[in-house]
């Protein structure tokens, strides 16, 4: 049984127990449920039901998975409860004996140098978003996507968001929401992001992650499109070559007819290509289903970054739960890759794609400095 199936089974068990159902774990990888009448009606199940979550189902069990309408049924039960949660993970905070070595394994600046200037204990606020993502074409794929940020420095949490989210859920109520453990009164936390700050980060960070999430699905669609396009081209190219051969014979009574036929072949081919484009076009839907705010102590590492004659300071946090340092943020696209460039103007840290050449003039420029357009072409 896969990890995602196990998590889904455990979630369903907790949810149904909270709603008053009797739950029994059965093999292989299933649940037996005795549901109250009102709960059974909402879920469209019998009062005695069996669910299966893996490839092999228990006897007389109904399959429950992400690629079905079960998420909508469970969402109807939860409503708005558990949409927003907060918790505090007050973990022991070990000292960092060799911060420089830790930074070496986490920071890769292609065009700048840095040095560690200090380490201190601090508190931070992590913000994790849980999305339901759906891709539609001639097939449908559903999935769950997690995206997290350290609000102290804009670092994304791709390398440990699953572990952090799981630890947060263990210490907070995913059904009723709320905050289970108060943050110490002397903890100095970064300010909460405004709605505009959140929207900007999500708008830039989500597209690449959604594409990666559906990578195998999109790859299959592309291969099928290429196969069907090749077949279509071979068929109509054969018709075209036949008409061209007839034209070369230069028979007066066939020239006009073959020219009209060539035009009809071209129109029909273009129409079929457009039909293929529509058939394999992919539309995605993204729905925010939960946010979790986690506050916890960290070791805050200060860096001095130097690029030519400029320099700036920034901080990265070492997390005691996963024993890892933040990935340096891309201050424009918030990408999941780790390579960074430092721009000349304001020393922004950006990914190579956010410091690429302008498509019109070929000049490289920082998208964090110039969000709308290339400064040379403006």
Summarize the structure.
With 378 residues, the chain is α/β, with parallel strands linked by helices.
Please describe what this structure looks like:
The chain is α/β, with parallel strands linked by helices and 378 residues long. The chain folds into three domains: 3-79; 85-214 and 285-355, no CATH class; 216-281. It contains eight helices and 15 strands. Strands 5, 7, 8, 9, 10, 11, 12 and 13 form an eight-stranded mixed sheet that branches. Strand 1 and strand 2 form a beta hairpin. Helix 7 (215-248) packs antiparallel against helix 8. The protein starts with a helix and ends in a 28-residue tail after the last strand.
Low-pLDDT runs of 5+ residues are 173-179
Main sheet properties: 8 strands, mixed
Number of E-state strands? 15
The tally of structural domains comes to 3
**Alpha carbon gyration radius:** 28 Å
Helical content stands at 25-40%
Beta strand %: 25-35%
Task: State the secondary-structure class.
Answer: alpha/beta
List the secondary-structure elements in sequence, H or E.
Answer: HEEHEEHEHEEEEHEHHHEEEEE
Residue-averaged pLDDT: 87
Q: Note the overall shape.
A: flat
Q: Enumerate how many helices there are, as a single number.
A: 8
Please give a handful of descriptors for the protein shown.
378 residues; alpha/beta; 8 helices; 4-stranded mixed β-sheet; 3 domains; single chain; flat; 8-stranded mixed β-sheet
SSE inventory with pairings:
Layout: H1 3-18, E1 22-26, E2 30-34, H2 37-43, E3 48-52, E4 62-63, H3 70-78, E5 84-88, H4 99-104, E6 108-109, E7 113-136, E8 140-150, E9 155-156, H5 161-170, E10 178-179, H6 195-213, H7 215-248, H8 252-280, E11 283-307, E12 310-319, E13 324-325, E14 339-342, E15 349-350
Parallel strand pairs: 3-4, 5-10, 5-11, 6-14
Antiparallel strand pairs: 1-2, 2-3, 7-8, 7-11, 8-9, 11-12, 12-13, 14-15
